[in-house]
Design goal:
The chain has 17 helices and 33 strands. By secondary structure, the chain is of the alpha+beta class. Helix 8 packs antiparallel against helix 13 and helix 9 packs across helix 12. The C terminus is likely disordered.
């Protein structure tokens, strides 16, 4: 007897679902998309109302054949693709290929791959939601029109192989605009003054910062002003004029959305957005947990919602009470505000069961899977815990109208901080407050020392991947599920490069953004792109026609294309000169760009056609043949270090060589970070076990799990040659020692 057929995207998901449904259903994967626009042509008939021309994806013929044969035998077909616009569109294409009746209830939807969720979904099929399909179709057509119409223009006018995208161009603009801010930043000097005060007991001290005279806040902008102030400050007569105590609560962060997961995995784990989503997909689709079988560990990973199902909240509450005590559970469950465009049925990313503790399943997971699952598990559980409670104190200390202020806080109740603390971007970090002694109004204090310190205002930092994802989400650009491919594309195309884990635009990136600003302002306009996302949401809600949206965009865009074709002259990008000399003709070599990235070419071209790859030298010598060790990249873009004499010498290492030789065998040392061991220098030669511990003061910051730690550079400061930000030298006036007052008689 034939069985109902369920079609999902991936084999891993099929395996997990089949386990839950037993032998009652047949579950087969489509291996992702089955139909799409052709790659070799635009594939959109503009004159016929932007009619898309879909074709079966090359290489999917056998998969489609097998699905058709299985569908013919099955009494019923259920489409179980992902619960989002793209998943709905895949189901729509599958229904077309399999000849399923229109409006037939053959679509099932679930947000976690658990037995209960799957069984419930199978019992509640629905028709395909055409509004969701149209929203995805509109996005696909808009992106195709921009990419296939604008990219050839860039090929002709700038350089072959370039691309322009509706969303990627805005991302490049954000990075370019930030670089302009840094370049145009005017550094300003300012000073702070801290006073160290002693109490009558002769032991306890209080540190406070100078505020000004009376209610007037004073800004100290030069050494002269600071010296004048210090000469004017009284040396005695300081009183505590006010003490304010307050209890503050700090709420836990909500559970992860797609965007916040990418940000936090970047901050805490050093994961790229693509790496985060790849690992999260594995956790969602299901992993083999030994005796427990294949199990989906987290809920659906593409979501804008922070909503938590009542059952999950109740389960978390029970776990928290048993594990940490009733005081750590929320008094009442908070209701998160619903953002515009967020589907009510969607949930936050959370573990499918909080009882499945990370440590308990660690042996069945890879290192990346374990680390990301633990992050999701801790974030969700913390979001269901009680707030942290702080006691904050602000004390004002004054004499002769001059005011110093001391602030401090202590944790009264840790709440969710017992388990998890949210990471911070550099822009959000604040000075830590000290713990203050118990002060009373009217108390006399002795001024012991004044410590002035010079500072310089800093430009905004360049974007890290987490900061860029956050900016894209806050500005309403794209959707979180698209951030990973966007970030990868703008690097692959050479518009931006990542230096010390921060994005920096290339000359090409600046050039393309300037051209788009001049001739296609809407394409790189942040507000226009965000408004387009809102209109796509309106299509999903059924209040806007997708053809109307595409038409309203394309007509002015087409006119701009014709005008740009006539106005833009061929742009010449000057080749970057190098100190390398061509070994064939003696002319200097220049850096050129090809299909696979940068390479060196003779400046005498076409008379001399000599080329060679760009080698990033490390200064280390190969322990096998004595050749130079150079930096290389794998096919997946991972950095490694190998002998320059390849292919005659195959010596490679993953870790970064350091300018130091092994005292045992003489080979070069490499930088390595062991778990809980900090940075170590390890011999690169096989069989030599020399290890040298590196003092913590020379450690270079945490690695990202893919390559050796990098030296951390200060952001901001004056612009040096080559556009590098150099940290300003801060001067310091020696602390002014002041004789302490004699003890106060009681």
């Amino acid at each position: 007897m034939s069985k109902p057929l369920i079609i999902v995207e991936s084999p891993a998901k099929a395996k997990t679902i089949e386990k839950f449904l037993g032998h009652k259903y047949s579950v087969k994967p489509s291996l992702g998309h089955v139909r799409d626009l052709p790659k070799s042509q635009l594939g959109i008939d503009i004159e016929k109302g932007f009619l898309p021309k879909y074709i079966n994806i090359r290489g999917k013929g056998e998969v489609i054949k097998q699905l058709r044969e299985a569908a013919k035998k099955a009494p019923r077909v259920l489409l179980a693709t992902d619960p989002d616009r793209e998943g709905e569109a895949i189901s729509w294409h599958l229904a077309y290929l399999l000849g399923l009746p229109e409006n037939d209830p053959n679509r099932i939807e679930f947000h976690e791959i658990t037995k209960g969720a799957i069984q419930k979904a199978v019992q509640n099929p629905r028709p395909i939601n055409q509004n969701l399909v149209d929203a995805q179709q509109a996005r696909r057509i808009l992106d195709r029109l921009v990419g296939y119409k604008l990219s050839p223009l860039l090929w002709r006018k700038v350089r072959p192989g370039l691309s322009a995208g509706r969303v990627q161009s805005v991302a490049v603009r954000l990075i370019c605009d930030r670089e302009e801010e840094i370049r145009n930043f005017v550094q300003e000097e300012y000073w702070t003054l801290d006073g160290l005060f002693g109490r009558a007991d002769g032991v306890t001290t209080v540190r406070a910062r100078y505020q000004g005279r009376g209610e007037e806040k004073v800004e100290i902008k030069s050494r002269t002003e600071m010296e004048r102030l210090m000469a004017d400050l009284p040396r005695e007569g300081y009183l505590v004029v006010s003490v304010k105590k307050k209890e503050k609560k700090r709420l836990p962060a909500p559970p992860f959305t797609t965007s916040t997961l990418q940000q936090e995995a970047s901050r805490k784990l050093g994961f790229s957005s693509r790496r985060t989503m790849a690992v999260a997909q594995q956790l969602y689709e299901g992993l083999d947990l030994g005796a427990a079988g294949t199990t989906g560990l987290v809920t659906y990973i593409r979501t804008d919602s922070t909503r938590v199902a009542q059952e999950a909240a109740a389960e978390a509450e029970q776990y928290i009470k048993e594990k940490y005590g009733a005081t750590f559970a929320q008094a009442e469950h908070r209701r998160e505000g619903k953002k515009v465009g967020v589907q009510g049925a969607h949930e936050a990313i959370r573990p499918t069961s909080v009882w499945r503790e990370p440590e308990a399943i660690k042996a069945h997971l890879t290192r990346d899977q374990y680390r990301l699952y633990r992050l999701i598990w801790e974030r969700f559980l913390a979001s269901q815990m009680s707030p942290a409670v702080y006691d904050t104190v602000t004390a004002d200390i004054a004499a002769a109208g001059h005011l110093f202020r001391a602030t401090g806080s202590t944790i009264k109740f840790p709440g969710f901080l017992l388990l998890y603390q949210e990471g911070e971007d550099e822009e959000a970090r604040k000075e830590k407050e000290e713990i203050l002694p118990e002060l009373v109004e009217g108390e006399k204090l002795h001024l012991l020392q004044l410590t002035p310190e010079q500072h310089f205002t800093q430009p905004p930092p360049r974007y890290t991947e987490a900061m860029l994802v956050k900016a894209l989400e806050e500005k309403g650009i794209g959707r979180p599920s698209t951030y990973a491919p966007i970030i990868e594309t703008i690097q692959t195309r050479g518009y931006v490069e990542k230096v010390d884990k921060r994005f920096r635009p290339t000359e090409l990136g600046f050039l393309v953004v300037d051209l788009l600003k001049q001739h296609f302002p809407d394409i790189v306009d942040v507000e226009f792109t965000a408004a387009m996302e809102e209109k796509l949401d309106q299509i999903e809600e059924g209040v806007l026609s997708w053809r109307q949206l595409v038409n309203d965009f394309y007509r002015p865009f087409s006119a701009s294309l014709e005008q740009a074709e006539a106005e833009i002259d061929k742009v010449r990008l000057e080749d970057e000169m190098t100190d390398e000399i061509c070994e064939e003709c003696g002319r200097p070599m220049v850096i050129k760009h090809g299909r696979y990235g940068k390479f060196l070419a003779c400046s005498g071209y076409p008379k001399c056609t000599n080329t060679r790859p760009i080698l990033v030298r490390t200064g280390a010598r190969c322990p096998v043949c004595g050749g130079e060790i150079v930096e290389r990249r794998s096919k997946k873009g991972r950095k490694f270090y190998g002998c320059s004499n390849y292919p005659s010498c195959n010596f490679v290492v993953w870790n970064k060589p350091v300018d130091k030789s092994c005292p045992v065998c003489g080979a070069f040392l490499v930088e390595k970070r062991g778990r809980g061991k900090g940075v170590q220098y390890v011999c690169s030669r096989d069989g030599c076990n020399y290890v040298e511990e590196v003092p913590s003061r020379t450690a270079r910051g945490k690695g990202n799990g893919e390559e050796g730690p990098k030296e951390r550079k200060e952001e901001g400061g004056e612009r040096g040659e080559g556009g590098e930000a150099t940290a300003p030298v801060e001067q310091e006036i020696p602390p002014l020692p002041i004789e302490p007052f004699p003890p106060v008689e009681s």
